[in-house]
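Dear colleague,

Thank you for sharing your sequence with our group. We've completed the structure prediction you requested, and as agreed, I am returning the results in plain text so they can be pasted directly into your records. Please verify that the sequence below matches your submission; if there's any discrepancy, let me know and we will rerun it promptly.
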Amino acid sequence: MIGKDVSHYKIIEKLGEGGMGVVYKAEDTKLGRTVALKFLPTELTRDREAKARFMQEARTASSLQDNNICAIHEIDETGDGQMFICMDWYEGETLKHRTERGGMDIEDTVGLAIQIAQGLMKAHTHGIVHRDIKPANIIITKDGVAKIIDFGLAKLAGRAKLTRTGSTVGTAAYMSPEQAQGENVDHRTDIWSLGAVLYEMAAGQSPFKREYEQAVIYAILNEAPASLASFRSDVPMELDRIVRRALVKAPEERYQHASEMLADLRALGEGLRSGHAHGRSLPDKRQPSIAVLPFMNLSADKEQEYFCDGMAEELINALTNVKGLRVVARTSAFIFKDKHEDIREIGRKLNVETLLEGSVRKSGKRLRITAQLINVSDGYHLWSEKFDRDMEDVFSIQDEISLAIVSELKGRLLGIEKAAIVGRHTKDVDAYDSYMQGRYFWNKRTEAGFQKGLECFQEAIEKDPAYALAYAGIADCYNLLGWYCVLSSKEAFTKAKAAAEKALEIDADLPEALTSLAFAAMFHDWHWEEAERKYKRALELSPRYATAHHWYAEFLASMGRMDEAMTEAKRALEFDPLSLILIALRGLVLYFSRQYDEAVKQGKRALEMTSSFPAGHLWIGMAYTKKCMFDEAISALQNAIALFGRSGVMRGALGHAYAASGREEEARSLLNELKQMPEPMGIPRYHIAAMHAELGEHDEAFEWLTRAFTERDALLVFLKVDPIWESLHTDPRYAALLREMKLKQ
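Please find the predicted structure tokens below.
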């Protein structure tokens, strides 16, 4: 076709090809302009009646005059009867090409969605339904203008196909449920499709991405898409809400008119431009913000490193109490420990305006602490100070630094804020010293770290029996020793609850202790309402407490409330954006949602930051097992075991991978080892049952599930949502067990 003349058009080059025909760039020799010619497939115009209907609809479409609709100039036929359409040609690219490069900038995404909605509103006003809104049918000009193309073609294609095969109309990934079922559609099907396109622009993939078209249709009819927050942390909650309303399966419950969706998009766009987007998942960048980096240890004794970390952590905790100040959580800030990255790059990664860095030199009971507040945008110091004190004055030093920083950031400090900053949980410096050591080791998230943390927290209590935070630290250690099956469930959670309750006797509103009790109520007592109530209370008292958001997300996931779980996981990351456990947490929720590819990606994100993170390897291994990538799964799970230490959970997951891969000899060898584990170690009855299920031994599986129920194995909480039980779903004993646990709905 290149170089040929068609009517008064000279073909210049081929622009693209798809199911609806081939598009060429051409020169209009009469008017001296560049146009696009679309040659329709012969089979679509073979039926005379269908062709006549299309000509009528195309004439109507050509009357649409809108900046966001591609203008149709002419419809004609070649000498051999091949139909073509002459349209405007634009220098630019399709939205499909743009989205293939990954998720787009949020403001650009909303801006383009506004333009597409404007075009649809114009068409719907004239009674025209597109029926095939998708990225390939949106052109983005070099000036950033969105143009909708191919009005009417989907109807033509649908009539041609329906007369032969009864197939549905449109492109599977963007079909509305009514369209997928072959029902009559109206303008609301375009609204659904725009929701799917908007989702893809933000997430970088379609909302119902599956390997086969039949699976796509099934997902559209039966499943809810993952929250946009599962793909990126900067998605405004309002954008997520708009997309979800557009993708409601019942037409009468989604947006009823494009104008309604357009109004919401415009309001969101205005909010983004002004920096006050409603429900922004990341706080407004203009809000005063700070990250406290780990203080450098300049002491001769390198074991004093924990004190330096504790100094920074205490400042973080103090500054978190300042209303209107956004403070990056410890685990995210501490990612940069012992790294020498540029200040501006650190600020960009943490999304803050200011950084606090400092150093500690400790000799005996004498301290020299230096602190510098740095403006991220230019690297200049806003404030710096040195503090020479005796060790007994450490709390006063922290208060001085905190108040000086707040003064610089806000210019004023309300009395109530000052009181919040200087509040303390102990006056004993040595107790505080031991507590900070405990948190240092607990944050390593390994068996050895938990055990060392327990020792340190106990030392803190011996020095100050009224130190509530130290009791909460003990509870946290025992909670995770029970979760990972290092200790038996009964021993671990009994001790965790006792420590948390002791903390609450001292301080009835301590968020850390309430969170610890909620965790035990969930994973041991199976008191669902009580657990949720305590999580919510902890978050009322401390909305920025990332661990409460984390464990509440696991609760929501166990209940099957995956969208809420992902939202809560997203909130946790807002306050601790570089936390390894919180990044991996999103992978766990994706795993429970059967989105294994995305679960692996999320786990890899954590491992890219620190390859020695055991939980990252664990959850990647679990997802690889379900993807039948057994070599990768086994390797990941072996890494998790090597990094963590003793863990019935990780060894059980490895055994399940062996069984699923057909390596029966290794599976049975590990199965026997796990069954013979001595108390007080936690016997992973949950995973022993899963191994039997994978080996096809369902009676044995239910025998061990019954034991897990009797012994209150922590992971039995996930019975309803964990995909390792799919082979048992049709067995009435499975439903009966869910009812026993009050997980059946």
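Summary note from our side: Residues 156-169, 278-285, 410-416 have pLDDT under 50 and may be disordered.

Kind regards,
the structure core
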